[in-house]
Amino acid sequence: MADKEKERDWDKEMKEVDKLLAKLPAADPYLGSAPTVRRPAAHAPVVAPGGAPTRAHEKVGTWLRVGLGVLLALGMAGWPYSHQCGLRLIFYMIGVGTVVVAGMWSALSSWKRRLGLAHVVSLVVTLWGLALAAGVLLPRVGVTTPAAIWLCPEPPAAPGR
Predict the structure, then answer these.
(1) Which of 47, 72, 66, 44 lies closest to 112, judged by CA?
(2) Does 20 map to a domain?
(3) In angstroms, rounded to a whole number, what is the distance separating the alpha carbons of residues 23 and 45?
(4) pLDDT in tens, 85-126
C-alpha cells in the first residue's frame, strides 16, 4: 500500500484540480459566492398509455367528490333508524365520520384545483358532519345534559318458573 502512495504524483494531480477550478465561472460580486452548478434537466416523465389526465378530468373528479359528500350528508340527515345507543349508534357514528372524511377529501381536492364554489360546498359538508357528530357526542360526555348512554341497557330478565 505504501508503494502506491509513493508512485502517485500529487503535484500533477493538484495542477489538474487547479485547471478544473479555473474553468468554473467567477464569483458574483453581489452575491459574494460562486453560482451553484445546475444539473441538466431530467428526462420527461414516462406517460402511461392512457395519457396524462387533463385539467377537465381533474375538475370533473373534484366535483364528483363534492357530490358524493353532499349525498352522504343528505343521507345522514335523513337517517331512518334510531341511533340512541348500542350497535345502531356505532353505525351512525361511522356514517357521520364518513361524511366528515368525504367533506375534507373534497375540500383538499377543490383547494388544489382552485375551484371556489366546490371548496365552499365541501366545507359546508364537513361542518355539517361535525355538527352531526357533536349532536351525538356532546350529550354522551355530559356537556349539554346529564350523560346519555353509549350501550343499551339489558332488558329485564323474565321471571323463572
Answers:
(1) 66
(2) no
(3) 33
(4) 888 889 999 999 999 999 999 999 999 999 999 999 999 999
